[in-house]
Automatic annotation (TrEMBL):
Pfam families: Phage_holin_3_6. Keywords: Membrane, Transmembrane, Transmembrane helix. Residues 1-11 have a biased composition (Basic and acidic residues). Residues 1-35 are annotated as: Disordered. The chain crosses the membrane at residues 71-99, 105-123. This is Phage holin family protein.
Length: 143
């Protein structure tokens, strides 16, 4: 019976999870694996490569944003100019429309006083907004 057990079980030759073509390493004192210093140097090199790539990406992104911002500013100034001309045309048209009713000098005075009143209202709103911003950034003891 002991002979049957020995025939059924092959002698143990090594770990069972190794592939069939695995050849055990020879113990000659020479190790081909990288050392910790090699790993650290490789990590530093990879970090430098990553930093260089990130810097190039951020430069290209900043250049793209600056280019788009220049275009946006140009269109914003163009829109402001066109709206300004439209308001001038409306003012002149209002004066021309009032001339037959009240005369040229009074029509000019009415439009001028209306625009001044509108400007004063807008300046008060601007001052209120600026005061709100100042209050937000001032010390709480100043209130």
């Amino acid at each position: 019976m002991l002979e049957e057990q020995e025939r059924d079980h092959a002698p143990y030759e090594g770990p069972v999870d190794l592939p069939d073509q695995h050849e055990p390493e020879e113990e000659d004192g020479h190790d081909d694996r990288p050392s910790l210093a090699d790993d650290v140097l490789a990590l530093l090199e990879d970090g430098k490569t990553y930093a260089d790539a990130e810097m190039a990406f951020q430069k290209s992104r900043a250049g793209y944003a600056a280019n788009r911002l220049k275009g946006a500013i140009a269109f914003g100034l163009g829109a402001f100019g066109v709206l300004h001309l439209a308001l001038i045309a409306m003012t002149v048209g209002l004066v021309i429309a009032l001339i037959p009713i009240v005369g040229p000098w009074i029509a000019t005075a009415i439009v001028t006083l209306g625009l001044v009143a509108l400007g004063v209202i807008m300046l008060r709103q601007l001052k209120a907004r600026i005061d709100d911003v100042r209050a937000a950034f001032s010390d709480s003891n100043d209130e």
